[in-house]
Automatic annotation (TrEMBL):
GO CC annotation: plasma membrane
Alphabetized InterPro entries for the sequence: DinB/YfiT-like, MDMPI_metal-binding
Location of the region described as Disordered in the Swiss-Prot/TrEMBL record: 55-92
Bias (Basic and acidic residues) ranges: 82-92
Keyword Isomerase: yes
Organism lineage: Bacteria, Bacillati, Actinomycetota, Actinomycetes, Micromonosporales
Keyword entries, A-Z: Isomerase, Pyruvate
Descriptive protein name: Mycothiol maleylpyruvate isomerase-like protein
Native species: Micromonospora taraxaci
Biased amino acid composition, Low complexity: 58-70
């Protein structure tokens, strides 16, 4: 039997997990530490990766229904992800 999560619950889970991740970033002494579950990644790289995904999702939503999804950006031409904690996103 599949457990189907209703859309409002999905939104709440996204917000809860996002808030927890923002708090982890804000409280980390060093953003260049390894992520225990992803030892090839630093906390900064994980934050940048998640931020890239969120920016793409925001662009898709902003484009509206029926619009073509934005093309994936060639990493060589992509803007450099933020390096400092404040630029990674608001902590609220």
């Amino acid at each position: 039997m599949r457990n189907i999560v209703e859309f409002p619950e999905v939104l709440r889970l996204i917000e809860d997990r996002s808030a927890a991740f923002r708090a982890a970033i804000a409280s980390a002494a060093d953003l260049d530490v390894q992520v225990p579950t992803c030892p090839d990644w630093t906390l900064r790289e994980l934050a940048q990766h998640l931020g890239d995904g969120r920016r793409r999702q925001a662009a898709i939503i902003a484009a509206g229904p029926g619009a073509e999804p934005p093309a994936k950006t060639d990493p060589k031409g992509a803007p450099t992800a933020p390096r400092d904690r404040e630029a990674l996103g608001p902590v609220s």
